[in-house]
Design brief:
386 residues, mainly alpha, two-stranded antiparallel sheet, 16 helices, 72% helix, disordered N terminus
Length: 386
C-alpha cells in the first residue's frame, strides 16, 4: 500500500486524502443542482422555492469563494501576501463587461450599433482598438485569462526577480491596484469612467434578467469554483506544492538548495491571477455592473480577511471564510447599516487573536474532545459490564 500511495497521481491523491475537499466539492455540486431546481420548478408561493435574488446572492458568494481560493493559493501555500488581487478580479470583470456591452448593439439609449452609450455621450467617433474583438465570446473569455495573467506575469517577474517580498511586496501590490483604480476612473480611458459598464442585456443570446439565465450563471459559478479548487489542490498536493511550502517557510533555504524561487513564485502568482479573473468574469453578469470601485484597496484587504477567517493554507477554509464573511456583511449592512465596517473589523481582530487557524481550526479540538468522550464512555460501559 505505501508503494502504491507513492505513485498516486495528484487527482487520485486529492480524492483519497483530501476528505474535507471532497465534502466541499459534494456540497457545491448539490447546491449547483438544488438551488436552480428549486428556483425554476417550484412556484413563488411554495416553501421549497428559492428566489432569484437569493440564487444571485449565492452565485456572488461562489465567485467570491473562487477569489478567496486564488488568494489562499499564493498566501497560504507560498507566503505571498498580495493586497492587489482585487485588480485581477476587476480586470476579468471588465473583460466580461466589454463583451456584454458589445452585445447591447443598437438597443442602447442612443441606438448606436457600434459604440456603447457612454462613448456616444462623450462624443467618441469610433470604437477604440482595445475594444475590437470583444463582440466574440471566445475572444472575451481568452482576455479574461490573458489580461490578469499578463499583468501578473509582468508585475511578478519584476518583483520576484528583484527579490521584493514581505510587507514591501504587499505595499507594491496595493499601489498597483490603486493606480489602476485611478486610471479606470478617467473618462478618456474608454471604460465608462466613474459609472463603469452596466445596463447589460443578454449573454450568448440569453436574456440576463430571465430566471433560466440566472440559473445557468449560478451553475457556471459552481462549476468554476469546483474546477478552481481542483486545480489549486493538484498544485498544492504535487512536488511543486511542497516546494511552494518550503519557500513560504524559508525562502533563503529553498534558494540555497538550488530552487529558482522566483520561477515558482511567478508561476503560482500567474495561476492565482487567472483564477481571480475568472471569478470577476462570472461576478459581473450576475450583479449587472462593473466599475472602478472593484479596484479599491479596501476590497483587496477584505479578501485577506476572508482567507484569514476561514483558515489560511487549507483552500476549503478560504471558501468557508468567503461565504461566512460575505453573509455576515450582507446581514450587518441590513441590521447595522452604520456599524457594519466596525463589526467586520472586529471579526478580523477576534479571529487573529483567538483563531489563528481560522474557523476550521475549531474542528480538530472538538473532534478530539468527542473521541475522548467516546473512549471514556466505552470504558465506563466495560467496567459496568464487569
Amino acid at each position: 500500500m505505501p508503494v502504491q500511495a507513492t505513485h498516486m497521481g495528484p487527482i487520485t491523491r486529492l480524492l483519497t486524502q483530501d476528505k474535507n475537499g471532497r465534502r466541499l466539492l459534494l456540497v457545491i455540486a448539490v447546491l449547483a443542482i438544488v438551488v436552480p431546481f428549486c428556483n425554476l420548478l417550484f412556484p413563488a408561493e411554495s416553501v421549497l422555492h428559492i428566489s432569484t435574488y437569493t440564487m444571485t446572492l449565492l452565485g456572488k458568494y461562489l465567485c467570491y469563494a473562487l477569489l478567496a481560493i486564488a488568494v489562499d493559493l499564493i498566501w497560504g501555500y507560498c507566503g505571498i501576501l498580495s493586497l492587489g488581487h482585487g485588480a485581477f478580479f476587476a480586470l476579468g470583470g471588465y473583460a466580461m463587461g466589454m463583451y456584454l456591452m458589445r452585445q447591447v448593439g443598437d438597443r442602447g439609449v442612443y441606438g448606436n450599433p457600434e459604440l456603447p452609450d457612454f462613448m456616444v455621450f462623450l462624443n467618441w467617433q469610433e470604437l477604440p482598438w482595445y475594444w475590437l474583438g470583444f463582440d466574440s465570446f471566445a475572444f472575451s473569455m481568452l482576455m479574461v485569462l490573458l489580461v490578469p495573467g499578463t499583468l501578473a506575469f509582468v508585475f511578478g517577474a519584476l518583483a520576484f526577480r528583484s527579490r521584493v517580498s514581505g510587507v514591501y511586496l504587499s505595499i507594491i501590490t496595493q499601489a498597483m491596484t490603486y493606480a489602476l483604480m485611478l486610471a479606470f476612473f478617467r473618462n478618456d480611458m474608454g471604460f465608462g469612467g466613474n459609472n463603469g459598464l452596466t445596463d447589460f442585456k443578454d449573454i450568448l443570446g440569453f436574456d440576463l434578467q430571465s430566471d433560466g439565465t440566472r440559473a445557468g450563471l449560478f451553475i457556471a459559478s459552481a462549476l468554476a469554483l469546483m474546477l478552481g479548487y481542483v486545480i489549486s489542490r493538484v498544485i498544492t498536493a504535487s512536488k511543486l506544492g511542497r516546494v511552494l511550502v518550503a519557500i513560504r517557510d524559508s525562502e533563503s533555504r529553498a534558494r540555497f538548495l538550488g530552487y529558482r524561487v522566483e520561477h515558482y513564485k511567478l508561476f503560482v502568482f500567474v495561476v492565482s491571477a487567472m483564477l481571480a479573473g475568472v471569478a470577476g468574469a462570472l461576478y459581473v453578469p450576475q450583479v449587472g455592473i462593473i466599475n472602478p470601485s472593484e479596484f479599491a484597496p479596501i476590497f483587496s484587504i477584505e479578501i485577506i480577511i476572508w482567507v484569514a477567517v476561514g483558515g489560511r493554507g487549507s483552500l476549503y477554509g478560504a471558501v468557508i471564510g468567503a461565504v461566512l464573511v460575505n453573509y455576515a456583511k450582507t446581514w450587518f449592512t441590513g441590521a447595522f447599516a452604520e456599524l457594519w465596517l466596525f463589526l467586520l473589523g472586529g471579526l478580523f481582530v477576534l479571529t487573529t487573536l483567538y483563531l489563528p487557524r481560522g474557523v476550521i481550526g475549531l474542528w480538530p479540538p472538538l473532534q478530539q474532545r468527542w473521541h475522548r468522550y467516546r473512549q471514556q464512555r466505552d470504558l465506563v460501559h466495560q467496567e459496568d459490564c464487569l
